Amino acid sequence: MADKFDVIVIGAGPGGYVAAIRAAQLGLKTACVEKWIGKEGKVVHGGTCLNVGCIPSKALLEASHKYVEAKHEFDSLGIQTGDVSMDVAKMIGRKEQIVKNLTGGISGLFKANGVTAIDGTGKVVAKDKVEVTGLDGNATTYEASHIVIAAGSVPVEIPPTPMTDGIIVDSTGALEFQEVPKRLGVIGAGVIGLELGSVWNRLGSEVVVLEALDAFLPMADAAIAKEAQKLLKKQGLDIRLNARVTGSEVKGNEVVVKYEDGEGAQEITFDKLIVCVGRRPYTKGVVADGLGIELDQRGFIHVDDQCRTSVPGVYAIGDCVRGPMLAHKASEEGVMVADIIAGHKAQMNYDTIPSVIYTFPEVAWVGLSEQEAKARGIKVKTGSFPFAANGRAMANNATEGMAKIIADEETDRVLGLHILGMGAGEMIAQGVIAMEFGSSAEDLALTCFAHPTMSEAVHEAALAVDGHAIHMANRKKRK
């Protein structure tokens, strides 16, 4: 038996590393187990988010957006640039450096907070024991009073499109292209598909997105989703709904994809194909058989509202449990669990977890959409305001999109905020904070927002809930 810890966390992604640091800050002897091997052949921390997810994709999105601005939009601002080109290898290199800085930063935080980093593959073998198989293949068993499973998730693969190195790739492979593919296929019009499709579309790829569902972004508010689809189509994304992929065949350096839509069987050829149809929990082999930890049919670990599993002392957080697969959700669960283990009272509000799609313009929302509220039988009133009428948006050359507030018709309580626009991912925090404090639409309407800012659209949307928007012709009778 090796060292004994108060807490052992399995996984150093945004859920695991945050849980480990928080536990250590609370005075608990903590270890964090990680097996992710980086490009330099050493274990790196940060999980999917920092290594091949949230952070690297945003680096490419930002670079590609600036390229589009310089190539097509600077002239309207009076900026003369001449010919503009993109050095893809340099863009990828910058992305790699950002990842290296951040993952190395987590290792530094572990040292600063006294977290013991254990390299290897962790497995819960008893309610108080974790077996770690090191990089050399040797297994060591550690004892812990509490165990936190934060093993994360992996991309879903589908039988019709088996991964083929360099041709058919998942989201990780799509971050590694060394040149712009002429014809790019994307399976899945979800968050990942739209973001990766946008990156390469901006750089010159002919992008076709195949989505099996017949509705675009059904998890977003319908009005926001409709406008987002229109804007992305205008940018060049060919989004084909109700398109179910049935097969693929790699022929040399291209792939022929077969799919079915409302008109029958179809066929299309791409140079590269990105498969991003979702993610599944990484729980296979993380828990020993017969331990009593319950998993559902999809592999998610069953937990209660405070992330306790069916085995006392063992918790699970992040992508391997119910709820949205979002880094910030995992991190907050990590903090909650660490606090509970340390004897504090802690609870997480799952009704106020924001979601963001980092296209341009960004799509962000928190709380209920109008269609969700109505489906629950809640009578609502709504207020919307377009960025086209916002002074800062005009100055920023970013007048596309709008802000929309959903409020309870009887209580005026804010039930949701939905934004399509530049900086939506930043502005959505206003809705999160408002909902956390039980704000009414009137509370937001009576709040002084700085001028000129994009956020004033949120203020005007709150005013519009009762027909009092200042900078828009009101369609509702004033009260």
UniProtKB/TrEMBL annotation:
Predominant location: cytoplasm
Cofactor list: FAD
Catalytic residues, chain numbering: 451
GO cellular component, one term: cytoplasm
Keywords in alphabetical order: Cytoplasm, Disulfide bond, FAD, Flavoprotein, NAD, Nucleotide-binding, Oxidoreductase, Redox-active center
One Pfam entry name: Pyr_redox_dim
UniProt-annotated binding residues for FAD: 58, 122, 319, 325-328
UniProt cross-references to PROSITE patterns, sorted A to Z: PYRIDINE_REDOX_1
One of the GO biological process terms: 2-oxoglutarate metabolic process
Domain FAD/NAD(P)-binding residue range list: 5-334
Binding site for NAD(+): 188-195, 211, 278
One function term, GO molecular function aspect: flavin adenine dinucleotide binding
Cofactor note: Binds 1 FAD per subunit.
Keyword Heme in record: no
Family: Belongs to the class-I pyridine nucleotide-disulfide oxidoreductase family.
Protein name: Dihydrolipoyl dehydrogenase
Taxonomic source organism: Halomonas binhaiensis
